[in-house]
Amino acid sequence: MMEFCDRDTAVCLWKTGNNNIPKIIVVSVYMNILLPGVWPAVFERLLDYCERKKKEVLICGDTNSWSTLWGSREMNKRGENSEDLIFTKNLTILNEGSQPTFITCRATSTINVTMAIRETANTIREWRVHPDDFSSDHQLIEFGITISVKTPTYSQNWKLGDFSIFRKSLDKMMTAPLKSWTARILEGEVEQFHASIKKALNISHPVKPCRTSLRKAAWWNKEAGKLRWEVKVYLSRFRKNCSEENFSLLIAARRGFFMQADEEIKAKGMG
Asked: Is the dihedral of CA 34, 42, 50, 123 positive or negative?
C-alpha cells in the first residue's frame, strides 16, 4: 500500500487469518506540528479509501494535539480539528485513562492516540501506557487484540529424526523406472515422488507444531541488565519529580545503556 505512504505515514496490510476480520490496514501516522495541515494529506486519502471500500483500519498516531477525548487535561485548536476528522470518518478512540504518553523535563502531555474503525475497534482490549522506560520521550503504548488465528502449522522435528529410516521408507515406495516418458507422465512421476518424500519424512521424523518465540538478544549480558535497571530507577525518579536534573540523569542512563549495547554488538560482529 505504498500509495498511502510518505515520510510521516506508514501503512501495512495485516492478513489476520480470521474469517470475520481477514484483513486490517495498520497505520502509523505522525502529524507534524510545523506543517500547515493538522494531518498529512495522504492520511486523509487513506481514510477516504477505507471508508469507500469498507476496510478495517487500526491507527497509531502522534497527533501533536490536545483533546479531553483521549485524556488531555486541556483542548487546543489542533485537537478540535482532529476531533472533527475522527467523527467524520467514524473512528473510535481507544485510549483509556489520562496517563501521559509524552514526557520531558518541560512538560507532560497525552498526544499519542490509538484509533480504529468498524469491527476492529471492538477487538481492542486492555489499552495502557507501559510503565517501563523504552528510551524515548514517547511512552510505549500496549494493548491486546482478540482475533483468533488459524490452527498452528506443523513441521518435521529434525533433531529427533532418523535419516536411515527415511531412506528405507522411501526405497520401499519407489517403483521401477518406465521405458518411455511423456510430459504428462513426467509431471505425474514428479508429483508422486514429492508425495513419497513427504510420507517418508512423516515416518522417520515426527512432526511438531511451529512455535514463534523471542530469542534472547546475543548482546545481552549482566552489564546490560544493570544499566537497564538504572534507566528504570531514573525514570521512576523523574516521574515523581519532573525536574531538569532528574531528566538529565535519565538521559545519561539511557545513553550509557545504548553505548554498552553498541559496544557489545560490535564485539560480537553483529554491527
From this structure: negative
Q: Which tens digit of pLDDT belongs to each residue from 111-158?
A: 999 999 878 999 999 999 998 878 788 999 999 998 876 566 778 888
Helix (H) / strand (E) containing 9: strand 9-15
So where are the chain's domains? Answer: 2-145, 154-209, 222-267
- Please give the Cα distance from 220 to 267 (Å, whole number): 12
Q: What is the pLDDT of residues 209-232, one digit of tens each?
A: 776 555 667 778 888 888 888 888
CB-based contact 57:47 (threshold 8 Å): yes
We find that the CATH architecture of domain 2-145 is 4-Layer Sandwich (3.60)
SS (H, E, C) 124-154: EEEEEECCCCCCCCECCEEEEECCCCCCCCE
Model's pTM, two decimal places? 0.64
